[in-house]
Amino acid sequence: MKVKIGKHTVGNNEKCFIIAEIGINHNGSVKLAKELIALAKNLGCDAVKFQKRTIDVVYSKKELATPRHSVFGETNGDLKRGLEFGEHDYAEIDKFAKSIGIVWFASCWDEEAVDFIDKFNPPCYKISSASLTDDKLLKYTKSKGKPILLSTGMSTMAQITHALSILGEENTILYHCTSTYPTEHNEINLRTIEDLRRRFSCPIGYSGHEKGILPSVLAVAFGAVSVERHITLDRTLWGSDHAASLEPEGLRRMVRDIRLIPVINGDGEKKVYESEIPIIKKLRRIENEAIKGH
Known about the structure:
single chain, 294 residues, eight-stranded parallel β-sheet, 12 strands, alpha/beta
């Protein structure tokens, strides 16, 4: 089963669909967001992703009133509102992404956020790990008739199966994920990708929060057809997600290595390459003529 996202086809035997998660790493700056979009495009990513929340719906009044110092003020609410882009901001993002030819979409954390992003006619929607158990949001997002990308961090197999019973496996991409930032190596558990591929017919991807690039590259070797990673210009910037994000050089190396996986895997047929012929002549004392071509 394959899923169409804009001009991209996601599924087995297709080019790996690489998503650069900007999330909230724009730190409330459209200028920084555009720099990250350009970075993702220039380094070979296929899409960028943001996060959209209706603050007063997603967070309680108590949470919003909690003291928390930031550049936006002294409460958690000040921070959350400062990080949230409005319609004018997303119009600028939409225009810029289209001008350089890269897909963009968002994780929507509530129904109002889905309606907000829907104004920009996104090619798909992402449902975060935190929202996997929100049946109402799953049903509402599905009602938009777009492909859905679903992350599975913090979730049991029973919860994943239930979510897919609502969304359906057709037109859904399921992402193996562990929701710690950054994720320790002993909790990445890439073999889960193989299990998900056996259980479900939808394409399986990987959403990583680890330090470095090795697990994300190996995920593709394990069968992931899409990889999502947070990106940043500088991991030392203020904000909760920067430390688990890839800086430009890390992103460049990850994209390069993921694109090499199909080349390295080959076609599985054992053969003698033309480049080996001179080595045979140089190193073999005896070449069995009777079975040489078999």
